[in-house]
Write a structure and sequence with these properties.
Blueprint lengths: L2 H15 L17 E4 L4 E4 L5 E2 L6 E4 L2 E8 L6 H9 L11 E7 L2 E7 L11 E14 L2 E11 H8 L3 E2 L5
Antiparallel strand pairs: 1-2, 2-10, 3-4, 4-5, 5-9, 6-7, 7-8, 8-9
Length: 171
């Protein structure tokens, strides 16, 4: 799928899903996708069939047609929007100079999608990201993290984050 078609698909899903609303878009494939649980990050999500844990990366699944990676942000004192802006406005411009932010509920929590714009960093041309407030700070290597970061190919991000479940409940 071309970059343009992937962006159009995301735009259509966002338009149909009403990202700011509580209405959920039912994805055709995600319920049948394999489940991936990462205890250290306190989450479970589904990914396209055929993806495997990437060698040397316990928080990354990949296949021939895409990937999903988990990371976290301490984010002390940041609102969900300012946390998303901190990711979107990195010096290397991983999402382009005018990345688009879309507020939405992810796993029942406040979050933002960071959608790519023209001028993405070389090597990141199809990347998109979701940043989600943990229900309560997640301890990773004895450090509290307030935000989960899910990075994936633009075409896969929304169907993947719609399956995200936090393992440690609500606030």
């Amino acid at each position: 799928m071309s970059k343009t078609r992937a962006l159009l698909a995301i735009a259509l899903l966002l338009a149909l899903g009403g990202c700011g609303s509580r209405a959920a878009v039912k994805t055709k494939h995600a319920p049948q996708w394999p489940q991936w649980t990462v205890q250290s990050f306190g989450v479970s999500l589904r990914h396209p069939p055929g993806w495997q844990v990437a060698a040397g990366y316990l928080q990354r699944m990949q296949g021939k047609d895409g990937y999903v990676a988990l990371n976290a942000l301490q984010g002390s004192g940041l609102t969900p929007k300012s946390a998303a802006l901190s990711q979107a406005e990195q010096a290397l411009s991983p999402f382009g100079a005018n990345a688009k932010l879309r507020a939405m509920r992810i796993g029942g929590q406040s979050g933002y999608l960071i959608l790519p714009a023209h001028g993405q960093a070389k090597g990141a041309e199809s990347d998109a990201e979701a940043i989600v407030l943990y229900p309560k700070p997640q301890m990773i290597s004895n450090v509290p993290y307030r935000y989960l970061i899910v990075t994936s190919t633009a075409k896969d991000l929304l169907p993947i984050v719609r399956t995200l479940v936090f393992l440690h409940g609500k606030r």
